[in-house]
Structure formats: C-alpha cells, structure tokens
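Session log. Operator J.P. requested a structure for one protein chain; no other inputs attached. Running the standard single-chain path with token output.
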Amino acid sequence: MPPSGKAKSEYLLLKSVEILEMSNQLSSQGNSLILCYYANVSHQIQVVRIGNIPNWYFERVMFPGQRMMFEAWPEAVLEIHTGAVASAILSDKIPCYVLRVIEEINADEVRDEAEDEAQVRAVEQYAVCA
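Structure written below.
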C-alpha cells in the first residue's frame, strides 16, 4: 500500500522516475514494435498475456498497483486474466495500440516539476502558519 502525505509524493516521484527509466531502456530504434504501458489498478492479482502473435509469447503476473512497460506489435492484444491463478477469468482484452506510450518525458523534467510543486506547497504552508 502506498504511503501518504509527503512520503506519498516522494513515492509517486520515485515510481514515475522508475517508469521513465524503464521506457528509456525499452525504447528501440528501427523496428515495428511499439512501447506500451499497463497498470493493474484492481485489488486483485492479474495475469496479463499476449497470445495472438504467432511464434511470440508474453505473460506476466501483475500484483495490485503494479505497473509495467513492454514492447509489442501494434496488432497484439493484451489479455487481462483476473482472480486466482488456477481459476483466472478473462476479464478484458486491450489492443496494444491503445496502450502505446505516445510522449516521452525526460526524467529530469519530472524531478524539476515535483521539486517546484514541493517548494510552492512549502511556501503556502509557511504563509498559513505565519
């Protein structure tokens, strides 16, 4: 479970930077794969898989709140299986072109924006206390 207050802001910043670093590692040049993002926003364990691409297999276990970036073909379909692993039910199918990451953001920009927001909040809190 994510923390609250200031710790939550730091947690979210670290998670954002982690995702951006993953996108930098995963971004590839010169192939037809697209960079995709998926987050398990449910309260259940999910098994996500792509099975509609011949000679290619992708399957991951996703815990509640877990996020991932992955590369796939635009025509791939991510299947979301929810529930106990042995009796998981197909709960959704999402085309990967819908999950495509469109805009790349520099990790330094994210840090700078978070620091600016923290400074504004600190000034506002100081003004209220004074």
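Operator note: The two ends are 34 Å apart (CA to CA).
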